[in-house]
Amino acid sequence: MSIPPGLLARRTSELPRQLWHLGGLMSIRVTADDTDGALSVVEQRARRGYATPPHVHSREDETLVVLDGELEYTVGERSGVLRAGESAFLPRHKAHRFAVISERAHYLMLITPGGFEEMFQVVSPPATEERLPSEQDRHVHTDPAAMAAESASRGATIFRDDAAERARHLHLLATAVGATDSYRCLSHLVAGPAPVPADVVDGLVVAAKRIPEDPGHARALILLGIIAESRPDAVSRHIPEILSALGPVPKSPAALALAYLGAHFREHSAVLLELLRDLPPEDFHRLRRCLATVSPSRIGRSWPTPALWELSDEEQETDRRWRESGAWDDATVQAIWDAETTAILAFMGARADHYVERNARV
Questions:
Q1: Closest-CA residue to 289 (of 259, 248, 252, 319)
Q2: pLDDT tops 90 at residue 61
Q3: Residues 226-255: what's their mean pLDDT?
Q4: pTM
Q5: Which domain range does residue 227 map to?
Q6: E strand or H helix at 270, and its extent?
Q7: Which among 337, 264, 331 has a CA at the least distance from the CA of 297?
Q8: Domain boundary among 133, 158, 183
Q9: Number of separate domains in the chain
Q10: Which of 24, 145, 241, 343 is most buried when burial is the number of CB atoms within 10 A of its CB?
Q11: What residues contact 323, with CB distance under 8 A and at least 6 apart?
């Protein structure tokens, strides 16, 4: 395998191979130059507290191999702990991070294809000795802004989530009126590939409860719906308290936003359908379809499922013959149903967001 054109700004063999990176000792044992671009091997030693920021690669995969100590890692929504002799695969296009949780750790990072090790060589200072940096060496550090910029130039994105800034925005959602900037900040966090911090879910629930005093907080319902796409359990337990806070009949623009959020949770279907029964018929039918149990008879030839709309006897018979001709097994029915549900949810979310944007203060 050859090195992808433009990936390396210069030969990595001309750059230092022993670095002090983020407070740890990094030794680049194999570069892309050594393997014709196929592989890089980075050895690292670090103390407790060493942590990579959440990031995602578009070009390379990483594999962690622990030689000594313990690492905590997260890949997408999956987390775990690695001990000596264990490994974890961190694939491209999926946000991940890891941290040292033992007193010290010694591990390898395999990068495939190679080349990304140049980022470390460019942004981190050379280690003057083969040891961890001491307190006296703390002035020698890795610039986070430079690391983010150099990573971006190599097709990787670093998510520089600031816990204090995040807490400030969540406080504004709980106390202020017209928190447009806060919703903008949190929407980037929610829609990105990095795992959403737990305090964001809790903060959005608090904001959603403020809808009766400020309908603009319907945005919180939309963001909770987006989170529910990948983490339904984190949101489902909050639905009863949100519904209780909204009162018997949520007012626009909250109704469409609540329909989008609620459409993810069949376990709450009875109360949601009763509460939102006064939605426009087409919106109510979409909600009802998303909350319905899987049934081949409700699958039609066009989106959204025409079995929920007014069809003539002739049209229904045509659909029935079409379904029979497919001779679908249960797995095929489920796949068709899930794909259609995803499309309907996307439409409901976009419609709710558009309505909130045009009719709410936030």
A1: 259
A2: yes
A3: 87
A4: 0.63
A5: 163-359
A6: helix 269-275
A7: 337
A8: 158
A9: 2
A10: 24
A11: 296, 297, 299
